[in-house]
Amino acid sequence: xxxxxxxxxxxxxxxxxxxxxxxxxxxxxxxxxxxxxxxxxxxxxxxxxxxxxxxxxxxxxxxxxxxxxxxxxxxxxxxxxxxxxxxxxxxxx
Length: 93
Prior knowledge:
Order of helices and strands: HHHH
Shape: flat
Low-confidence stretches: none
Structural class: mainly alpha
Radius of gyration: 17 Å
Number of strands: 0
Number of helices: 4
Distance between the termini: 48 Å
Strand content: under 5%
């Protein structure tokens, strides 16, 4: 089944919405207000996407009949990596 023009636009809007939401979540306005560098916002967005990948893998483990153990282990490993990246970003690692 091919996607129509409207479905392609809707699929693209979904990802733009996620990027915008993660930018707001990671403090997009803080560098603007303080006139500092926005590098931490970009790193925060990337860390949130890593965490999202881990959460999607855990979700896939709950909905899949095959490879549940692999999805579960992979999901928790990715979430652990995201947590380590957060600690590395704040300098506590």
